[in-house]
Each structure stands twice: as structure tokens, then as C-alpha cells.
Amino acid sequence: MMTDNFDRTPGAGRVRGKPTSPGLGEAFTPLHPEIGDGDAKPSMFSPLEPLRQPRTSPPLLDSSASGGGDCRRPTKTKSNSTQTPNSTALNLHKSEDVVGKSTLSVNAPEFYPSTYTYEELAYEDGSEGYYPPSTLADLVQEILSHLNSSPGSFEFDIDNITATLNEWVETEKTLEELVELIYTQSTSIPNFAYTGARLCNHLSHNLALSPASGNFRQLLLKRCRTEYEQRDVVVRGDKDTQKNFHSYVLFLGELYLNLEVRSPKGPPTRAAILLSALKDLIITLLSHPVDGNLICAVKLLKLTGSVLEDAWKESGKSDMEELIQKIENVVLDASCSSRDVKQMLLKLVELRSSNWGRVHTASASSEATPDNDPNYFMNEPTFYTADGTPFTAADPDYSEKYQEILDREGYYGDYEENGNDTFDTEDDEMDPEIEEAFEKFCLESERKKRS
Predict the structure, then answer these.
(1) Among the listed ranges 121-125, 143-147, 176-180, which one has the minimum average pLDDT value?
(2) What angle do CA 210, 215, 219 make, to 5 degrees?
(3) What is the per-residue pLDDT across 263-279, written as a single tens digit (0 to 9) for each?
(4) Of 383, 363, 360, 359, whose CA–CA distance to 371 is shortest?
(5) Cα-flanking dihedrals φ and ψ of residue 99, to 5°?
(6) Is the confidence at residue 13, as pLDDT, over 80?
(7) What's the gap between Cα 365 and its chain centre?
(8) Which of 17, 138, 218, 237 minimizes the number of CB atoms within 10 Å of its CB?
(9) What is the DSSP letter of 192?
(10) Are the C-beta atoms of 322 and 369 separated by less than 8 Å?
């Protein structure tokens, strides 16, 4: 009956078709339960509420009232005392003729006027409808946008993200496209280098596809090498070119710190090829000492300096000494860089002289004593004697002085050996001076209330 076709919520039953390839909505269903009948799936990161029921339903005539089972809205008719039964029957007959000859169908497509402009429906909660991504680029863009806005959810979402990418990346071509997309976004989105490097490390170990041309890690390093080989040209380019190059340098630094190369014979190691590349990039930046290049070199060394120096020392190299010498030469050159940048370089040299701010304790905490650990009493509180002399636990007379404080303050009072604590309550009464002051206070308060 027609009543059944119209008795539904506006918009209900209309679902957008699934993409032919698996999308985010399908892969992330473990995170968010399906809504409705399961045909339309919400976004993987922001589940949507189902459509609310309408506040009012259109008034419908009882199907029994119309002989043909048609269901039409009742129309208001003006009361006319002069209307005759014949005219009423004539009007009804004309209406039935119109309905009987009508070619309208409930299955007809929706009609839009020629001047109508389609707009997305806005949900009451301000959210937008979710369209499963139709391309790998859309998928990666949504993933990276989410990780950039919510980096704290990385550990929670990374397994589902990897499962989705494994469904999409099934050919060598799509793997190369994925590498290019992640590389481009990681070097263009501000402050995304760290999260991008973590994502690259996880995918390098968990993407199933590994063609003969190279796995994810190998293709990523190959893409980084392309930019590395152009370093001498781009470092002297225009402002935008240099800015892109600086983003690449910092991403490479994060990649060196986070990308693990696993070996069945031992623990994971860092990519040795990135170690030598970072040294060459720092030398390139210092060879063209404009402010932007020098600031990038400072940021990179603050980020990776301690790790780089440790790696070079393990292999018996003094590469860090060479870099510090170049920095000092830049500082001494009066024609190079501004005063503020030179100050940054000096602070960097000072940081390196302090072992990059690292503090090595003299011994383990379980073995620390006042004799072998200068910081043993660092967090101890400071006490004062009756005459105001300060002392700490490091003082030789600490026990005697601390006991004097306890005796003077009467912290323990009387203590019975049978385990029942009783304290002297004789001092609970106020001193005469305090009692007098309290009475004055009460009188003054009472006087103010009356006034």
C-alpha cells in the first residue's frame, strides 16, 4: 500500500553505496559498532548517531476511508452552508477520475527543479555524513589528518590503520603510491615529522606486500635518496625551496631516530645509511650559512646530536668534532648570519660541551650513598633549629637537631607502650590573651550584625 511507502523517516533507507575496494568504514568496524541495518557505515574515527525520528508525522487518512486504498493528506475546506449534496458528489467524482488517470508512481526518481543546487545535509550535532574513500590518496589523507590532529591515539589506532592499508595495498604500484603519499605529507604538514616517522617504522614491519622491487622501508629510503642527491642545488634555492628542504632534513632526522632495521641475529639497529646522510646534510647547510639553513642545522643537532655522536664514537670516528669546528668557524665569520642566529649556534656548542644535557648518575639508586652520589641529599627537606640555623639530612648532627625539634614541638605527647595512643589535652584550653582576643572578636561581630 502507498501508506507503507511513505511511513518512514525523511532520508531513511537511503544509503550510499560501498566502494568496490575495501574502505575505512569496513576495516574499522571493530572500533565502532554498525549503525542501523549495517549498509551505511560511519567514519572510522568519529561514529555518527542515527537519524532522529521526526517530531511530527504527516496526518494521513485511514486506508479504510478511501475505497482504492489511496492515502492522501486531508485538505482544509471552508465551511459553506450553501453546498449541496450534488455538488459534493460531483467534486468527488472528478477527483477520482484524476487519480485514476494519474501516471505518478512512488518509485519515480526524486524531482529537482532546474534552479535547485544540491547541498550536503547538515546533522543536528554539527557532524558531516561519511563517505568511504574511493582512492588510496583519500584514505591516506584521512589517516594522516587524524594522526596529525590526535597524535595521542597513534598506539590505539595503528593496528586498524595497518589492517586497512593491507587491504588496499595489493600491488607494487599501490605500494609505491603509498610511500610517496606518506613521504609528501610527512615533509609538508607542520610538526608531523615525528608521527610520520613512527608510522613509517610500523608499516615497514607490518605491511604484508613485499615485491621484488623492494619492501616499504626500501622504497622509502629510495625516495629519501632522491631528495638527498639534490641537496647542493635546493640549499641555494628560493625561500620556498629551502623551506621544503628543511622539512625534509628534519623528517630524515626523525626517521633515523625511529626507523628500526630488524635482524634475526641481534637486536634492532638504526639505518646506517641515514647516519652518513645526516652528516652530509649538516655540512651542506653550514656551507651556505644563511639564517634559515643555520637554524635548520641547529634544530637537527638538538634533535639527533647525542645519538649521532654516540654512533660515531662507537665506530671510532670524530665526525661530531668536525661539525662543531665548522659551527665555530661560522660564528667567528662576521659576515655570516645574524646576531641571534650566532647566539643559537653558541648555545648549541655549549649544549654539546655538557654532553647534550645528559646527566649520568654515579651509581644505581640501590647502591647510592652520601659518599658516592653528590645528589643523594638533593631532594631532602631543610629544617631550622630554635635559633634559625638551617640543617638537612647531610648535616653530621642531623639526628640530634631533628630530635630537638620533635621535643620542642611535642609531636608525640604521651605514648603508652600497650599500643594505645593518648595525647595530653591540658593545652587544649586557650591562653588568657587568646581568649580575650576571641571575646573581642565575637563582640565586634555581634555589633556589626545589629548595626
Answers:
(1) 121-125
(2) 145
(3) 788 888 898 899 999 99
(4) 363
(5) -65, -40
(6) no
(7) 35
(8) 17
(9) -
(10) no
Residues 207, 165: contact at Cβ < 8 Å? yes
CA distance 290 to 342: 11
- Residue 17's pLDDT band (boundaries 50, 70, 90)? very low
Block residue for cell numbers 639530612:
393
- The pLDDT > 90 percentage for the chain reads 33
Alpha helices in 52-153 (DSSP H): 85-101, 136-149
CB 257 within 8 A of CB 274: no
What is the rounded CA–CA span in Å between residue 303 and residue 47? Answer: 38
What number of residues does the chain have?
A: 451
Q: Measuring CA to CA, which residue among 132, 73, 68, 143 is closest to residue 100?
A: 68
Pairing of strands 383-384, 266-270: unpaired
pLDDT of res. 76:
46
Q: What is the pLDDT of residues 43-86, one digit of tens each?
A: 566 555 555 555 555 555 444 444 444 444 444 444 444 555 56
Residue showing cell 646534510: 281
3-state secondary structure of 102: coil
Mean pLDDT of 325-347: 86
How many CB atoms neighbour CB 383 within 10 A?
16
DSSP bridge pairs for 384 = 390
CA 62 to CA 72: how far, in whole Å?
9
CA distance 231 to 245: 8
Which residue, chain included where needed, has cell 628534519? Answer: 250
Cell 613521504 found at:
183
Residues 179-183: contacts with CB under 8 Å, at least 24 apart: 179/216, 179/219, 179/220, 179/223, 180/223, 181/136, 181/137, 181/140, 181/141, 182/140, 182/144, 182/220, 183/220, 183/223, 183/224
3-state secondary structure of 193: helix
- Residue labelled with grid coordinates 492515502: 71
Report the sign of the C-alpha dihedral through residues 414, 418, 421, 426, in that order. negative
Q: How far apart are the first and last CA of the chain?
A: 83
Q: What is the CA radius of gyration of the chain?
A: 39
**Rounded to whole angstroms, how far apart are CA atoms 126 and 124?**
5
The per-type count for the chain, helices as H runs and strands as E runs, is 16, 4
